[in-house]
Amino acid sequence: MRNIGIIGGTGPQGKGLAYRFALAGHAVAIGSRSAERSAQTAYELNERLGGGTAVHGTTNAGAAVFCDVAVLAVPYQGFAEVLAGLAPRLEGKTAVCCVNPLGFDRQGAYGLYVPEGSAAEQAASVLSGSAVAAAFHNVSAVRLRDDDGPLEDTDILVAGDDPDAKEVAMGLAAAVTGRAGVDAGALRNARILEQLTAVLIAVNKNYKVNAGIAVSGLAPGARDRAAAA
Amino acid sequence: MRNIGIIGGTGPQGKGLAYRFALAGHAVAIGSRSAERSAQTAYELNERLGGGTAVHGTTNAGAAVFCDVAVLAVPYQGFAEVLAGLAPRLEGKTAVCCVNPLGFDRQGAYGLYVPEGSAAEQAASVLSGSAVAAAFHNVSAVRLRDDDGPLEDTDILVAGDDPDAKEVAMGLAAAVTGRAGVDAGALRNARILEQLTAVLIAVNKNYKVNAGIAVSGLAPGARDRAAAA
């Protein structure tokens, strides 16, 4: 079990992931710009988890100090600045980026231009002393919060250039889906995972659902064999 | 039932789709630069379909004349030139683009820069007299060829700005998966579907599989209700 710090843990995605990680037995620190808001979120989650103190609320800096794995779940606006402030505290640790740099116009969501290619590559550039992977972009925050049990119909796609960070993220995926994440290749593929969220936003609108992604054609157990390899 | 012309129908994706469309009862013309190669492909497919003449081989121009729906399955290299030559013959018809503009290097596959944003938007620009949708990017050519029966674990994501072209593509998807395609929003989202193939190529390499994509969180029948709406 790990100590997980959610940077931006009071937003829907960060809060939903915090719930799932705590439910799976990890210790979780909710980070936020506002320690009051994160304390409130931690209180709600601990209540929902049946009491106990698996989740605690703190600042983003506090979550960075606490964790051995940081989950980056802040909005893309201001993302690089937040990370730059946390870089010294995340040195030598693993960071899993689930940030989706999206804009919205009349046609729906679209991928914003990111000079480094993706938010995850930007994170790797700013957090040069950390091992970075990308995951959890495409899982519905509503289903993280509301579904009973693991999201067995859904896959967590994981991109990364650091094998250890990728393995950590693939393992954490089990807290969400009940099985290892799917190795989706190099960190640069994070750009595709980030933008894929724009497609899911369109699907959600067209069908009034909370859509996610699954990989077809993987034999049962293939994910876990790969995770163990 | 439709008259479908596969532009670039002797490649793996075009040939696999031709097989599925003919199996579903559509009349299919295989187009190719070489009428001899397309005749050979048509012969193979008709044999496999148990005789008959559901599939015929011709040139790309011949397939464009024959069809009411053109499926664009040529390699991205030379794509715009091929389309420009066919534009007059495709005027007033529907074109469904499944072209993936990908490059390959030591890290695997990656999305090539496309000035229009995506191959599908490029097609819409060159084929200004046709109605363009984008679909079938992410379905495995091997599974199209080898699987018995519809790929029920897989979804065909469809992007488009023209509602009629999108509806045609969503309907054709049933020939592959046994159910309507999933409305993935505006034509610009084709860029994401095209690049998503790079992720699936990474998954195929990492797990030795023929991966595809499914959308989770859609209730049974949701695809068909939307297709009928």
Q: How is this structure best described in words?
A:
2 copies of one chain form a homodimer. By secondary structure, the first copy, chain A, is of the alpha/beta class. In chain A, 41% of the residues lie in helices and 21% in strands. Chain A has 10 helices and 11 strands. Chain A has an 8-stranded mixed β-sheet with strand order 3-2-1-4-5-8-9-10, sandwiched between helices. In chain A, strands 6-7 form a two-stranded antiparallel ribbon. In chain A, helix 4 runs parallel beside helix 5. The radius of gyration of chain A is 16 Å and the shape is globular. The relative contact order of chain A is 0.14. Chains A, B: Keywords: Oxidoreductase. Chains A, B: GO terms for molecular function: 8-hydroxy-5-deazaflavin:NADPH oxidoreductase activity; coenzyme F420 binding; cupric reductase (NADH) activity; ferric-chelate reductase (NADPH) activity; NADP binding; oxidoreductase activity, acting on NAD(P)H. Chains A, B: One of its GO terms (biological process) is NADPH regeneration.
